[in-house]
Amino acid sequence: MLNKHTLLKTIDRYIIKKFLGTFFLSISLIILIVIIFDVSEKIDDFIESKAPLNEIIFSYYLNFIPYFVNLFSSLFAFISVIYFTAKMASNTEIIAILSSGISFRRLLVPYMISAFILAVMSFYLANFLIPYANQKRLAFENRYIKVPSRNRTRDIHLQIKPAGTFVYVQSFTDESKIGYRFTLEKIGQKGLYYKMEADYIKWDSLSHKWKIMDYNIRTINNMKEGIRSGKELDTLLNLKPSDLTPKLVDVDVMNFTQLRKFIDDEKLKGSENLQFYIVQKDKRVASPFATIVLTLIGVSLSGRKIRGGIGIYLGAGITISFAYILFMQVSTTFANFGNMPPLIAVWLPNVLFLMLGFYLLKTAPK
C-alpha cells in the first residue's frame, strides 16, 4: 500500500503528464489544421512567385509554428486543464484524491508546476526565439507573398541627439530614399546656434551617408552670424531611412533587449508610435503570466463533478478565455489610443482574472 508521500509524487507525475500531454497534443493538431488551410490559401502565391519548396517549409512554416504556439499557448493551456480535470472529476478521481487526505490546494501544485513550465516557454518564445524566427518568416512573405507598396510619410519631426539636435522632413519616400524640405537645427542653453535648410536629402546606400542637396547653413555665435550655401554636401547624421518610415512590424523581429533599446531611442525621437511599442514590450511579460492565472481558474472551475459532464466545463472555460482575450484587447486599445498607462493596461486583465481564480479556489471542493 502506498504511503501519502509516495501517493502525492505519483499524483503529481500523473497530473503533469496529463496537463503537458493534452496541451501539446491539442495545439499540435490545431497547428496542423491551420497549416493545411494556410497552404490552400497561399498555394497560388507560391506557384506564381516560384517559391522553392525547401524555403516554404523551412523559412516560412517552420518559423510560423513558434509564433502560433505562443499566440494561443495560454488559451490552449486553459482548455487542456478544463478538459482533463473535468474528465478526472467525472470519473470521481478528484473525489478519491481528496478523500485520501490530500487538500485541494496541494492538488494545485502539479498544475502550477506545469503552468510555470508553459509560462517560461512562452516568455522564451516571445522574447528570444520568435523575433529570430520572424526575421526569416517576414523576409519570405515580403519576397514571395506580399507585393511591396509605396511608403510615403509626411511632416516628420525627430530629435536625433540628446543635446538638442532636431530634424524636420516635409515628406519622405521610402522607395527612392529621398526626403524633401529638410531642416536640421541645433539648440543649446542660449538658444538656436545652428540651422541647415535644404531642398532635399538623399540616402547613399554605399557610403551610408546622406547627400544634402541645395543647402543653406546659418550659424549663430553670440552676436555674430554666418551664412553659407552650396549645391551638395555629404554628411553623417544619427538618422537612418527607417527612422523616417517607422513601421510597427519592426518590433516583431526584435528580442527583448533590442526592443528596450529601440524604445529608448524612440523616446528620444518623440515617436508617435511610442505607446504601441511600450504596450508590446509589457505584453511580452504579462502574456506568459496569463497561463498561470487561467490554469488556476481552470482547476478551480472544473474540479467538481456536476451533471452535464465535460461539455458544461468546456463551454464555461471557452467563455472565460474569450472574455479574457476581449478584456486584454480592450485595455491595450485604451493604452494605444487613450491615456491608460501601458503597464496597467496589460496587467489589469491578469489581476482581475487572478481575483476570479482565488474566488473560485475558495469555493472549490474541499
Question: What can you tell me about this protein's structure?
Answer:
This protein is α+β, with helices and mostly antiparallel strands. It folds into two domains: 4-146 and 277-362, no CATH class; 152-244, no CATH class. It has helices spanning 4-49, 53-71, 73-90, 93-99, 104-145, 241-244, 256-269, 274-302, 310-337, 342-362, and strands at residues 152-161, 165-173, 178-188, 191-204, 209-221, 224-235. A hairpin with a 2-residue loop joins strand 3 (178-188) and strand 4 (191-204). The radius of gyration is 28 Å and the shape is elongated. The model has no long low-confidence stretch (mean pLDDT 85).
Poorly predicted runs are none
Secondary-structure-derived class? alpha+beta
Strand order in the sheet with the most strands? 1-2-3-4-5-6
- Mean pLDDT figure: 85
Outline type? elongated
Taken as a percent bin, the fraction of beta residues is: 15-25%
The count of helical stretches stands at 10
Number of structural units classed as domains: 2
Biggest sheet layout: 6 strands, antiparallel
- How much helicity do the residues have? 55-70%
The helix/strand order is: HHHHHEEEEEEHHHHH
Spatial gap, N to C terminus: 24 Å
For the CA atoms, what is the radius of gyration?
28 Å
Task: Count every beta strand, where a strand is a DSSP E run of 2 or more residues.
Answer: 6
